[in-house]
Amino acid sequence: VITMGGIGPTHDDVTMRGVADGLGVGMSHSVAMEHLMHRLKQEVLEDGGQKGVSDLKCSTQRMCLMPDGTELLMEEGKEYPLLRCQNVYMLPGVPQFMRQQLTHLGRVLGCGAPFVSHRVGFSVDETTIADALARTAEEFVATSI
């Protein structure tokens, strides 16, 4: 299962709670995530960010509350980990970070090909294009449409 979005610091970021409920596990504070958030905050301060903030904000602390058993899968050169709890992978919703995590997820799952995504919008009912989509899917079996 792959989720996208809802793992940030705002009140409407409820994916982690949903994953915990869905898996029947509790939620607990991740010390590893707290250390990561402190490191990232320190990098921001050293880069000229807000001075005088000694502790993580309450909103950022929310990102450290995770389903029990969640693993932080770090990748060399990336600042944020892929989150895995049992068979659920939780990805950020911010497009640039999501793309990085999709590529990382591909490596974790052993997929050789990179993830590529394109969105095409139509102003017609899906029944109008259903046959054409079916033919395209049959012609390009290795591609998920």
Automatic annotation (TrEMBL):
Positions in coiled-coil regions: none
Superkingdom of the organism of origin: Eukaryota
Pfam families: MoCF_biosynth (PF00994)
Domain MoaB/Mog: 1-106
Residues that span the membrane, as ranges: none
UniProt protein name: MoaB/Mog domain-containing protein
Natural source organism: Hemiselmis andersenii (Cryptophyte alga)
Taxonomic lineage from the root: Eukaryota, Cryptophyceae, Cryptomonadales, Hemiselmidaceae, Hemiselmis
